[in-house]
Amino acid sequence: MLLKLSWKNIWRSKLRSLVVIGSIIMGIWAMIFGNGFMNGFIVSYMANSINHDISHIQVHHPEFKRDQEVKYNVESGIQKAAEIRSWNGVVGATTRTLVTGMISSPRKASGVQIRGIDTENEAEVTRLDSLIGEGTYFEEINRNPIVIGSKLAENLQVGIKSKVVLTFNDVNGTLTQVSGRIAGIIKSSSLSLGESYVFMRQEDLSRQLGIEGNIHEIAILLGPQVDPQTIVDKYKSEFKGDLVETWEEIAPQLAYMQDLYGSMLYVLMGIILTALVFGIINTMLMAVLERMKELGMLMAVGMTRIRVFLMIMIETIYLGVVGAPLGLLLGWATVNYLNHDGVDLTAYSEGLEAFGYDSILYPYVADEVYLIVTIGVFVTAFVGAIYPALKAIRLKPVEALHKI
Amino acid sequence: MSIIKALNITKTYNSTAVPVHALNGIDLEIEKGEFTAIVGPSGCGKTTLLNILGGLDHPTSGEVSLAGTNITTMQDGKLIDFRLRNIGFVFQAYNLIPVLTTQENVEFIMLLQKRPKKERDERALELLTQMGIADKASQRPSQLSGGQQQRVAVARALASKPQFILADEPTANLDSHSTSALLDIMAKMNKEEGATFVFSTHDQRVIDKARRIITLEDGQIISDETR
Predict the structure, then answer these.
(1) Using CA of residue A37, residue A39, residue A40, residue A45, what is the dihedral sign?
(2) Interchain contact, B99 vs A11, CB within 8 Å
(3) Residue range of the domain that includes B184
(4) What is the pLDDT of residues A117-133, one digit of tens each?
(5) Is B116 part of the contact surface with chain A (CB cutoff 8 Å)?
């Protein structure tokens, strides 16, 4: 009875109910779209960082991260990487020789990290070859081919086949200079890839460093849904003495960023739902005040206060029941449409890339967000209905019946 | 046995600086099956008395017993339930639920009483037929005339077969034809169903139809005449 009466009541003033339903639809749409947009940024940023740079897991000599000295290499690193590649859940594992140094062109110089990479496995793990925007992936230059980021190339004012000189200390601490030519230039929104790294073939760098056959880093890329910690545990059980870290430990700022963006959903929800709750209170209060006489009659003829309270609550919930699915559908459709084609932000690409974001954004919303938003809206409707419902049951029938 | 028994009822309103004594020591008994009109000039306390007899308002002093139950000190929740089970109300402004059909309005009290659907449907149609508006069963109140709406209100009050029906100025908003038709119906229901009616009115046509006339003035009963 209450359900039927409440349903009919919300259509007494169609325009007013439609305004509230419209607010709910737009509120849910805004929450989902906003979350999708923010996710688009974070997913793009994290995907860039994990897939093209740090990978899911890194292995180092325990002292390497503190001192970054050439002598701290991973014992039997190349053999370990080969074995890791056969593990379930591992997409790829590559080895790197690392040294901090300087790259100089005839015009400028810049401090960089020089990375000696296993070109074939590096392509498996970071897809570095796919990021080459200009030139080739270590081809067409026989002696010391070098790959650098576009930002670094721009700073050094060099292009393909330009000669550059790398300066660094070898394993004995002797200052060493190596000349090479630019084989390829990386096009990536990642700040590290764009201007901080210089890539060489591993054998070229190791030879110059005097550590042939040794490496400083193993980077491991995992398949989707694989928990990095399980692979870390497996590594620790198989090999002793190395420092094994997940991406959250290697780049805590990324994990923090992920948490921050996750909490932004709640901030956004808080703002939108606060506005919505006042809209609902206003509407339901109007609905109560304009039928005080009728509510008085209902209580006079024997409708209990709890039933009157429930009737107002159900009316509000109905507004949510009508609005929420439409809002969810609209939000879902918008996000999926944009996820398919991407949002072109090339007009702002310079600014976005300065922060490591892609200029094409692919909004994405996790399934649980739809549930969280739905719960949020219904809690809001519930909260918004309480005051008007209390107002209704505080009416004295004898007074309410004589209201004009 | 009296259906309604009021003992030394007083009601004073203190909402203004000067207290208003709406009722001053009302003693009243109404028997089952009566067709009683409470009459008097505006402001004499008719509506206040009816509200107190219906348990919608509390007296300042005195006692009200309805169907053998003292309602004066009854808690609000119990009083609502008591009203639901024992009293039918007809209001001056009809007070039908605009979003429900005529039949649904008539069934409403029975619905609150959780009566079975079959019983509700049969009783509602029976009453609507007796009221001469069975053809309006599926129409909304806004599609009915004032007289028809008040007939629906009477049918709603009668539907659950209450102990008595209180009607506050039931004909005040009706034309003479509708008033006459409504009075005939209420008299018929009083006779056929044994329904006890208590009106507050200053409509002479209602007064003429009543079998007992209680006249109020300044919150006191100045005459109680049975025809």
Answers:
(1) positive
(2) yes
(3) 2-226
(4) 999 999 999 989 999 99
(5) no
